Amino acid sequence: NHFFTNVLGLRRVKKTVNFDNPSVYHLYFADPTGTPGTVITYFPFPSRATGHRGIGEVAKARFAVLPDSLDFWEDRLAAHDVKELTRVDCFSSACLEFVGPDGENLAICEQDTAILPPADGHIPSTVAIRGFHSAQFCVGGSSTVRNLLAFMGFAAGPSDGDTRRFQLRSSGPASIIDVQYVENGEAAQESVGSVHHIAFAVQDDAALNRMRDALAERGHQVTAVIDRSYFKAVYFRTQDGILFEIATNPPGFSTDEPIDTMGSSLCLPKQHKGLRETLEKQLVPL
User: Fold this and answer.
1) How far apart (Å, rounded) are the C-alpha atoms in residues 262 and 279?
2) Residue 62, strand partner residues
3) pTM of the full structure
4) CA separation for the pair 190, 204 (Å, rounded)
5) Confidence grade of residue 114 (pLDDT, cut at 50, 70, 90)
């Protein structure tokens, strides 16, 4: 919570619980209103061991900033003792890679098309995070994930070493997936610091149902539509074992609390409202 709000300058737009395991928080960090394409979420399990990076996972999440912002971020992250700060060029974009508080691989990348408004808070607007730049998958050399991405509207682009870029034809925020192909690597082991799932947006319930039917026709084992209060979603795993979520944009995070105070109160889904007194005693105060 401290890292994503105080250090990175995102807003905590929702404080709720894991719908499937309500004894654990589900925390949402995003731009001021929780715009799709800006939201990173966490299930904090404090007693678990650190996960192992490898094949079959989302290996890296990258945030977008405007050009000429990385000097600010390198100085800021170094001042907060963030580990493994590394400047790299990623498909001709300047990026600052680093390790998050739980061992997760993160990066901040400069992007001319970072068109979303800056995150709310104390970071100067000229350098503030403006949603996601991209995510990077790590897969085996024989992976067919490119076929799935093509079906979902991502066009294959250039390669950079062992990594191929795929991008939505609408070049807005969060429109890039990079796929790193690794031969004979070890499989990822999901735990602390791992990406549990990656979410892709659709406009409404009708689009979600169409997508679910189309995925099922392609042979994917897709869940039923699940109501997550702030969106509806379906889930399935890729051949590589990566958990995909397809989620609706509406109704959004202001359905159960005003936008001005979003993220300050513990919001519970209807099936867990009877647990409020117990959960408020168990969960670490934020």
Assistant:
1) 19
2) 107, 134
3) 0.95
4) 31
5) low
Number of C-beta neighbours around residue 191 at 10 A: 14
- The first and second tokens of residue 240, run together, are 């590589």
- Strand residues in 31-104 grouped as ranges (E): 40-42, 57-65, 83-90, 93-99
CA atoms within 13 A on the CB side of 269: 17
Angstrom CA distances, 56 to 107, 166, 174, stand at 20, 17, 20
4 three-class SS: helix
Strands (E), 7-91: 11-18, 21-30, 40-42, 57-65, 83-90
Q: Which of 14, 5, 12 is nearest to 231 (CA)?
A: 14
Largest CA distance in the chain: 53
- Once rounded to an integer, what is the mean pLDDT over residues 143-169? 96
The Cα 62–Cα 173 span in angstroms is 11
